[in-house]
Amino acid sequence: MHHHQHGRQHGGPFAQFMRPFFNGFRRPKYNVPMNVADHGDHYQIQVYAVSFDKADITVRVVNDQLVIQGTRAHDPANDPNFLLQEYPLKSFERVLPLSNRVDTTGIVAKQENGVLILTVPKKPEVVVEVG
């Protein structure tokens, strides 16, 4: 066991900033790719969660963040002998900051060809006329 006396500087200020965020937060080992497109009055989010059924995926809004999670039953005994693994077998999680611009009640999710497609309506812009 090595004890760093100067552990405080370890990793620089950015690592120190990120550490509290990641410490209490179980990060999945691998994650799913995601596209986010701006369609004017709404955003379209495509989550490439192939092999996760729609029933395995939950979408919720927590603290003005869109949290997309997938979990499914998985028996590690059946794991292939991976030479390369870039895709989660058991679970994934993606978090998107919404920053109060979207109508969270109007989010619609559908799945096509293993791709989860979320339609996220924007809140109508409030235009203030300057008299």
UniProtKB/TrEMBL annotation:
A Pfam family matched in the record: HSP20
CDD domains cross-referenced by the UniProt entry: ACD_sHsps-like (cd06464)
Domain SHSP: 25-131
InterPro entries attached to this UniProt entry: A-crystallin/Hsp20_dom (IPR002068), HSP20-like_chaperone (IPR008978)
Family, per entry: Belongs to the small heat shock protein (HSP20) family.
Protein name from the UniProt record: Hsp20/alpha crystallin family protein
Phylogenetic classification of the source organism: Bacteria, Pseudomonadati, Bacteroidota, Cytophagia, Cytophagales
